TrEMBL record:
Chain ranges of the Response regulatory domain: 3-114
Keyword DNA-binding: yes
Annotated organism of origin: Sporobacter termitidis DSM 10068
PANTHER family for the chain: REGULATOR OF RPOS, TWO-COMPONENT RESPONSE REGULATOR ORR33
Purpose: May play the central regulatory role in sporulation. It may be an element of the effector pathway responsible for the activation of sporulation genes in response to nutritional stress. Spo0A may act in concert with spo0H (a sigma factor) to control the expression of some genes that are critical to the sporulation process.
DNA-binding region coordinates: 121-216
Entry's Gene Ontology cellular component terms: cytosol; protein-DNA complex
InterPro entries: CheY-like_superfamily, OmpR/PhoB-type_DNA-bd, Sig_transdc_resp-reg_receiver, WalR-like, WH-like_DNA-bd_sf
Protein name per the record: Stage 0 sporulation protein A homolog
Species lineage: Bacteria, Bacillati, Bacillota, Clostridia, Eubacteriales
Residue intervals of the OmpR/PhoB-type domain: 121-216
Length: 218
């Protein structure tokens, strides 16, 4: 349940990756050029970035300098030389996979990178509210706050997709694995409870005619 950026100039490969990410429950954005990727990186927050090296206008190695340090990166490239792999890893990439690749291997490497990131940064803090994603302990101004299981599951999805507008249907699917069947009022009810309990009335924004977004900066 992560939001992933795919930076790949070959549309067929990018679309295949996006389709498979959707099948395993993730969401994704796609960028096909260096400048387009740079705009995405600057305007949104991603749990992981899949990054080709050979891109139009701005290459992947250059883009690495613009990616937040806490965002895991997996290089996906036809450049199979040892020096290229070493360069990519030394620049801070979490992994390096060479084309052509097996989709199952790519998905396994993505999940491994996401697990490493979750272990290294299990806490999320915003406006005096601290959420420990591993222990599921929530405090506001140092005081513990009790959340139901469903409230915490919804909160976890909002945090992992912070700054991303998610529809009510998508929140139902990601948080509770519910297929949309016409009733999304339960999302609205739980959002209102989270806003009140966490003092996030101004942080959990309503997106008109769509759903909600947790605004948490870059």
């Amino acid at each position: 349940m992560a939001h992933i950026l795919i930076v790949e100039d070959e549309k067929s490969i990018s679309d295949l990756i996006a389709m498979n990410l959707t099948l395993v429950g993730h969401t994704s954005d796609q960028a096909f050029t260096g400048p387009e990727a740079l705009d995405r990186i600057r305007s949104a927050s991603y749990a992981l970035i899949l990054l080709d090296v050979m891109l139009p206008e701005i290459d992947g190695f250059t883009l690495m300098g613009h990616i937040p340090e806490n965002t895991p990166v997996i290089f996906i490239t036809a450049m199979s030389g040892l020096s290229d792999r070493v360069k990519g890893l030394n620049m801070g990439a979490d992994d390096y996979i060479v084309k052509p690749f097996e989709t199952l291997e790519l998905l396994a490497r993505i999940e491994a990178a996401l697990r490493r990131t979750a272990r290294s940064s299990p806490q999320f803090s915003l406006d005096g509210t601290v959420v420990d994603l591993s222990s599921r302990v929530v405090t506001v101004a140092g005081n513990p706050v009790e959340l139901t299981l469903r409230e915490f599951e919804l909160l976890e999805v909002l945090i992992k997709n912070k700054n991303i507008a998610l529809s009510r249907e998508k929140l139902l699917k990601l948080a509770w694995d519910y297929d949309y069947c016409g009733e999304t009022r339960t999302v609205d009810v739980h959002i209102q409870k989270l806003r009140k309990k966490l003092n996030w009335e101004r942080r959990i924004k309503t997106v008109f005619k769509m759903g909600y977004r947790l605004e948490a900066g870059s």
